[in-house]
Write a structure and sequence with these properties.
By secondary structure, the chain is α/β, with parallel strands linked by helices. The protein has a single domain, classed as Metallo-beta-lactamase, Chain A, CATH 3.60.15. The chain contains four helices and 17 strands. The strands form three sheets. Strands 1-2-3-4-5-6-7 form a seven-stranded mixed β-sheet, with no helix packed on it. A six-stranded mixed β-sheet has the order 8-9-10-11-13-14, with no helix packed on it. The termini are far apart. About 40% of the residues are buried. The mean pLDDT is about 95.
């Protein structure tokens, strides 16, 4: 199995973008324009993302990191033009797995162990004993509202904090698509139990996204851990907003659980899991 097209699961999601999945549940996107391509997030770093992108497009490439968490920065060091919100960098401008906390440092090794225990193959030449997510120096900060020009159109950055303080989504108004990173997490839920998460900021994010949706800015949501959502499915914003408000008002039942990142309150909102730091409620 090679480290590009055989390792990644690549699917066209619009006439100008690809969804690139790694290890079944870690997604990133490639958005193409007439003069530039934009990669949104960089996965867990097992495959050769830059090599795959080179096979798919012949254009200069910018990498936009929606936030600094380990499963979004895996191959960031392969790219020359890397951008992220200021709040997701270290004080000296780096993006690193241990840059803003140490909660993710064991996850790469744990992921490989879980994958191998399930009897699943790794790419040719991949060595688990040397697997590491390399830091990126001097990452360019991008501000909310700033755009990245692809030639035929621009994608606009939208501040969507909650899961992380500087979390950014990328809005393609012409194609009516929002690339939402982790605004909605695995199984259509919310991960608000990590360090630097802010459930109340998440409420404000849902209000912002509802306004953009209702103004016709987008009709499709592409996140890193879920299938595409479109049309009436985007009422998920109201569902999660209202459920999270009940949680913060202490009107929802929960189970105390231990996750990969410590203890959390686990709630159910219309069948989707919502994990919240106990200290936040």
């Amino acid at each position: 199995m090679n480290r590009t097209d055989e390792w990644y699961d690549v699917e066209r999601v619009t006439d100008s973008s690809y969804r690139i999945m790694e290890v079944e549940k870690y997604g990133q996107y490639l958005v193409t324009g007439t003069e530039r391509a934009l990669v949104i997030d960089a996965g867990v770093g097992i495959g050769d993302l830059r090599g795959l992108v080179t096979e798919l497009v012949d254009a200069p490439v910018t990498l936009l990191l929606t936030h600094w968490h380990w499963d979004h920065i895996g191959n960031a060091a392969q790219f020359d033009d890397v951008r992220i919100h200021e709040d997701e960098r270290t004080a000296d401008g780096r993006v690193a797995i241990d840059g803003l906390s140490t909660e993710f440092v064991d996850r790469p090794a744990e992921l490989v162990e879980e994958w191998q225990a399930a009897g699943k193959p790794l790419p040719d030449g991949f060595r688990p004993e040397t697997y590491a997510i390399d830091p990126v120096e001097d990452v360019t900060p991008i501000s909310p509202g700033e755009s990245i020009d692809l030639g035929d159109r621009s994608l606009e950055s939208v501040h969507t904090p909650g899961h992380s303080p500087g979390h950014l989504s990328m809005l393609d108004r012409e194609k009516e698509v929002l690339y939402g990173g982790d605004v909605i997490h695995i199984d259509g839920g919310l991960y608000l139990h990590l360090e630097r998460c802010d459930p109340r900021a998440c409420l404000e994010t849902f209000e912002r996204l509802i306004d953009l949706r209702d103004d016709g800015a987008f009709d499709t949501l592409l996140t890193c851990h879920n299938r595409p959502l479109a049309g009436s499915e985007l009422t998920v914003f109201e569902t999660l907003r209202d459920g999270l408000q009940q949680i913060l008002d202490r009107e929802a039942d929960f189970e105390l659980v231990t996750t990969d990142y410590g203890r959390a309150h686990r709630y159910e909102v219309e069948g989707s899991p919502v994990f919240v730091d106990p200290a936040a409620v």
